Amino acid sequence: MTLDHFAQNAKSSWWNEAGPDADIVRSSRIRMARNFRDYKFPTIYNKEEANKIMELVKEKLEKSNDPVAGNLELFELEKLEPLERQVLVEKHLISPNLAEDSLYAACLLSKNEEVSIMVNEEEHIRIQCMVSGLQLTEALEVANKYDDWVEQQIDYAYDEERGYLTSCPTNVGTGLRASVMMHLPGLVLTRQINKIIPAINQLGLVVRGMYGEGSSAVGNIFQISNQITLGKSEKDIVEDLTSIVQQIIAQERSAREALVKTSHIQLEDRVYRSLGVLLNARIIESKEAATCISDVSLGIDLGYIKNIEKSVMNELMILTQPGFLQKYAGGPLQPYERDVRRASLIRERLDSAQIENS
Question: Which segments of the protein form a coiled coil according to its record (predicted)?
């Protein structure tokens, strides 16, 4: 299996419509931070020690007969082109930090792209599992299988009182970050999101954009995750986040119903104007594209648009990112060139989708 397997298709298996409440919850993610015993942590190790960690992981993967290991492919990031690393970021398979600091860094990817193990990021490894819809418990079960496999190969840095030891103090304890990616246009359009985000923060959760820390919530996509990993079990973290997300889902559905009831014509007009832009624009920037894709996705959910599948809009959300655009173009593009190619790609994909469903 080569990197082309991951770079050619925009949609990962989890980026589909199969999961519970997938019209609002795009994905559920579990991420585990782990370090190895008797090795310096990434915050203080040198290049030689970082290389030892990567070689250790490679050795254990190659020698293991476990089916879990057989499902993984290792890629050394230094050997990838910058555009290839950017595509992996845009597909949420690696973090922006790992892509930028790629020396002696690697990622292990499962064939279905649900599992990614990042090597030598902020911790020695970060095990990540992503699934469609609101399925945090299911994602945790999968992540635990890979976590158990790694622990059978290499002893973790663990303290009986503190739990898993990490470079970042906020990860000490379970080392678990649970998060959901949510599409919340109803709450944004009714401006309720301005009240909900502070309330979420007070509950010990954090709200970020689609690509995590430092990213903005373009296209009405928000990532909600836990902040506390110490003093709570993995089960408690997942159950608490699930409970809060279910409340947000209910509020988003209520907001959509209110918009349909009180602003039906204005909402329908917004949806079809955005569809018109996507079908006809010759130049479009990424932020405008994301907003229009969000509007059309909402229109599909509400039944205004019937000849385009929701999966097409999910695909376009990834395809229109800078890395994918340049990957398909065969090399770097200037911002203006990306805007032209983005508009062309969107028109072609929507024209094809409408023909398929006509």
Answer: none
